[in-house]
Design brief:
Helices cover about 25% and strands about 30% of the residues. The chain is an alpha/beta fold.
C-alpha cells in the first residue's frame, strides 16, 4: 500500500492510500449510495468517463464472482472508498481488492468519503483525478485540462458487439449504448428473442431485422450528444413498440421533442423512491444517471408517467399513440430491489399483442 491523492477541479485535495493498481485516473467525480452490488456497479458501462466513490463505510465484504458481472471490464477510471474489503464471501472466492488489482483498476481507501460526497452535493458534479504517482498540484493541472462529460457521445465506445440472446417469443432489437448484462437477461428472461445492435445502427438497419419491438439501453455520456441514436429512434417511432431504460429513456425523450439537463450531482444508488402517475404506487428503484428529462413543455401525445419523490424529476414518459414508453431507473436492479422487474414482462406483452 502506498500514498495516493484525490483532487477536484475546484482545488479540493484529499489524501488516501492505494489498494489497487498504480496509476493516474481522470474523469467526472460521482458517488453512489448503494451498500452492496459493488462489482455490478464497477462493471456497468454507464460509468465510462467517471470516477466512482462509494459512500458506504465499507464495500467489498462478500467477495467477487463472475455471476455479478454486468460486462467484461471495469468502466470507472478509479474507485474511491473509506474501506475496501479483500475477503472471499458468498459472491465468490476472490476478494474485491485483489479483483480490482487483477483488473488493473486504480483504487484507493482511507479517503474521507463523507467530506467528498458532501462537497459534491453542495457544489455539484465536477471533474476530478486520483493518482498514486503525481502530487496534488500536478494532478490538478491535468484535471482542469480534462474534457467534461457535457456534449460528449460515449455510446459508441461503450457499446458491445452484435449478439443474440433467447430462442423464443417476439423479436426485440436492442440498441446497445452501454447495456448491462442484467438488462439483456431481463429482456430474454421475459420471453423475448433479443437481437443486440450497437449504438449508431440506423433506423433502416434496425427495421430490416423485422423486429416486433425496439429497446434502447442505458449508457454513459451526455444524452443530447447521442445524435445517431436519437435519429434512429425518430425513424422507428410509430412503426413498432419502443421501450427505453436510463440513457434510453433520455434518448427517447429527445426523439419525442423533449430536452435533458445536467443534474447537480446525479442519482446513483439502490434506494430511490419513484411514484407512478397511474395509481400512486411508489417503487423503490436502482438508479445511475447524471442527466434528467425536462418536461416543462410536453409535446402533444407525450405524458409523464413516473416522478422522483426525492427531487420531482421525470422518471418515466409515454407516447401511447406512438407505442413508446421509457423509465429512468433500472428494472433489472441487480442485486436489488426488484419492485420494477414487471416492466420487462409489460414490454413483452405490448410487443406480443
Amino acid at each position: 500500500m502506498s500514498a495516493a491523492v484525490i483532487v477536484l477541479e475546484d482545488g479540493m485535495v484529499l489524501p488516501c492510500r492505494s489498494v489497487g493498481a498504480p496509476g493516474t485516473a481522470l474523469g467526472e467525480m460521482v458517488f453512489t449510495t448503494g451498500m452492496n452490488g459493488y462489482q455490478e456497479a464497477v462493471t456497468d458501462p454507464s460509468y465510462l468517463g467517471q470516477i466512482l466513490t462509494f459512500s458506504a463505510p465499507m464495500i467489498g465484504n462478500y467477495g467477487t464472482g463472475d455471476q455479478a458481472l454486468e460486462s467484461g471490464r471495469v468502466w470507472p477510471g478509479a474507485v474511491i472508498a473509506t474501506r475496501i474489503g479483500d475477503s472471499p464471501g458468498v459472491a465468490g472466492p476472490v476478494g474485491f481488492r485483489s479483483w480490482l488489482i487483477a483488473q488493473g483498476v486504480v483504487a484507493v481507501e482511507d479517503a474521507d468519503t463523507r467530506r467528498l460526497v458532501r462537497h459534491l452535493r453542495d457544489h455539484g458534479a465536477m471533474r476530478g483525478g486520483v493518482s498514486t504517482e503525481l502530487g496534488a498540484e500536478e494532478l490538478l493541472a491535468l484535471v482542469r485540462e480534462h474534457p467534461p462529460l457535457d456534449d460528449r457521445d460515449l455510446s459508441l465506445e461503450a457499446a458491445g458487439a452484435r449478439r443474440s440472446l433467447g430462442d423464443n417469443g417476439p423479436t426485440i432489437v436492442a440498441v446497445d449504448c452501454g447495456m448491462k448484462q442484467g438488462i439483456l437477461d431481463g429482456l430474454a428472461g421475459s420471453g423475448m428473442r433479443v437481437e443486440v445492435v450497437p449504438a449508431g445502427t440506423t433506423a433502416e438497419a434496425i427495421l430490416a431485422l423485422g423486429p416486433d419491438g425496439v429497446f434502447i439501453s442505458n449508457g454513459p455520456g451526455d444524452p443530447a450528444a447521442c445524435v445517431p441514436v436519437i435519429d434512429a429512434l425518430s425513424g422507428v417511432l410509430g412503426k413498432v413498440p419502443v421501450f427505453g431504460i436510463c440513457l434510453g429513456h433520455q434518448l427517447l425523450s429527445h426523439a419525442l421533442g423533449l430536452r435533458t439537463e445536467k443534474l447537480p450531482f446525479g442519482h446513483r444508488g439502490a434506494n430511490h423512491p419513484v411514484q407512478r402517475a397511474e395509481d400512486g404506487v411508489v417503487e423503490i428503484t436502482v438508479q445511475n444517471h447524471g442527466y434528467a428529462v425536462v418536461a416543462d413543455s410536453l409535446p402533444d401525445g407525450v405524458e409523464v408517467t413516473r416522478t422522483s419523490l426525492f427531487d420531482g424529476s421525470v422518471e418515466g414518459i409515454a407516447a401511447p399513440e406512438l407505442l413508446a414508453a421509457s423509465v429512468q431507473y433500472h428494472p433489472e436492479a441487480r442485486p436489488g430491489p426488484h419492485d420494477a422487474t414487471y416492466l420487462f414482462r409489460a414490454f413483452r406483452d405490448r410487443v406480443a399483442s
